[in-house]
Write a structure and sequence with these properties.
424 residues, mainly alpha, two-stranded antiparallel sheet, 2 strands
Length: 424
């Protein structure tokens, strides 16, 4: 990346804030591109609340847990495909067009989901949304990094991460707003089409990444954009740095004697270590459990004893709010403490949280109350598997919950406000 690494100090964050009056054009570029992160976060959060109402409308989804899991996970499968082809689209057609294409897919998917008449159509819409999310996850941060001043690049790229968590928080607010509206989940899923359309309009009004333009031989266009991004005294230095960086990249990829290959890169120690660190972080952060919490947060809350859909969404909103607050803190500290320290502090917090969750879940399971036929009969024998079990005396509440999604709690079918635990 041209410009190199910026010095990590507190003034970088203040400089980022000062752009609102010094150079709002830069913030406009960053925020417009970061809407892709908002779409990602919104989809992550909204499906968790919408799923509660989808189960009410489509009985097949309520009866089959694998169908619930498919509705959630098929978007992730689409995102994998979208991300894999996103790099090619970004390089061939530009970062701006890549974002617009991703938004178009997301918009189509949102409309399909909102109009779905059966689970199959809903799944198709989720696939389109996944394609869009995957492509945007590649294009948005890349566009921001290549269109941001070097000194505040870290903070501006962090906007994409902040809007991911902000989108999750917004999704729970939207879910709450439509809990009593006709169509409930259709509105929840369909509203996502609005920010996708807004970003399409904004990106049509913005230029292409200066680095991509320079790479494609459109030097004058690239220089024109750089003059709008950097202060006059820094423009020439940035133009020369960009020129040298792109020329070096072109020479390395076209030279027959020094052609870059995967094998050659892996043989280079610094490149190999950087690849391990980058890919390792991306892979292992998916296994810490936060995605499960965000996708199934209201369902987990209900299994904990809060049967009301509205209460479950309210409590999930707290989780999303804390998540978004953490992103705000990272924007401030990323250029103050540096990437490595911030990462180590975050990983320590993740480890502590996972240990606490493990202990709590283990204690809940091992101390689960036994099930008795007398207490079960008070709730109309809502655990059918218990009635036909060979060893009902060994059953506890956790086993009931695993046996059937109908077991565990009883609530009013109309509003799920009255909560009673299966066993006292």
């Amino acid at each position: 990346m041209e410009g190199g690494a910026a010095e990590a100090d507190a003034s970088a964050f203040r400089e980022c804030l000062s752009l609102s009056w010094k150079n709002p054009y830069v913030l406009r570029l960053a925020f417009s591109a970061a809407i892709g992160g908002l779409l990602f976060g919104y989809d992550t959060g909204v499906i968790s609340g919408a799923l509660l109402y989808i189960r009410d409308d489509f009985k097949a989804v309520d009866r089959k847990t694998w169908l619930q899991e498919a509705i959630v996970s098929v978007a992730l499968a689409g995102a994998i495909i979208g991300a894999s082809v996103g790099g090619y689209i970004n390089d061939q057609f530009g970062r701006r067009k890549g974002i617009i294409f991703a938004d178009t897919l997301f918009f189509i998917g949102s409309v399909i989901m909102a109009a779905a008449t059966n689970p199959t159509i809903l799944l198709i819409g989720r696939v389109f949304v996944g394609f869009g999310v995957g492509m945007a996850s590649m294009a948005s941060p890349l566009y921001i990094s290549e269109a941001s001043p070097t000194r505040v690049r870290g903070a501006l790229v962090s906007l994409n991460g902040f809007l991911i968590t902000g989108g999750q928080f917004l999704s729970y607010l939207i879910n709450l707003a439509f809990t009593n509206a006709p169509g409930t989940w259709r509105w929840m899923l369909g509203v996502a089409a609005a920010p996708a359309l807004i970003q399409i309009i904004l990106m049509f009004m913005l230029p292409e990444s200066p680095r991509w333009l320079y790479r494609k031989g459109k030097e004058e266009e690239a220089k024109h954009i750089l003059r709008k991004i950097y202060p006059p005294e820094d423009v020439e230095d940035e133009i020369n740095t960009l020129k040298e960086s792109v020329e070096m990249e072109i020479n390395e990829t076209t030279s027959a004697s020094d052609k870059i290959s995967i094998i050659k890169l892996l043989k280079t120690k610094t490149v190999r270590r950087g690849l391990y660190a980058g890919m390792g972080l991306q892979i292992f952060q998916q296994f810490v459990g936060i995605n499960t919490v965000m996708y199934y947060s209201p369902t987990i809350v209900q299994l904990a004893g809060y049967a009301s859909n509205r209460v479950a969404l309210l409590l999930s909103l707290v989780i999303a709010g804390i998540n978004a607050f953490g992103s705000i803190m990272s924007i401030y500290f990323i250029d103050k403490t540096g990437r490595k320290k911030l990462l180590l502090y975050s990983l320590f917090g993740v480890i502590v949280s996972l240990v606490i969750l493990t202990v709590v879940f283990h204690e809940t399971t091992t101390h689960s109350p036994k099930v008795s036929s007398i207490e079960t009969s008070h709730f109309n024998n809502t655990c059918p598997d218990y009635k036909i079990a060979f060893n009902p005396s060994e059953w506890d509440c956790m086993k009931c919950l695993k046996a059937s999604p109908q077991c565990g709690f009883c609530a009013s079918a109309s509003n799920k406000v009255n909560l009673f635990f299966l066993i006292e």
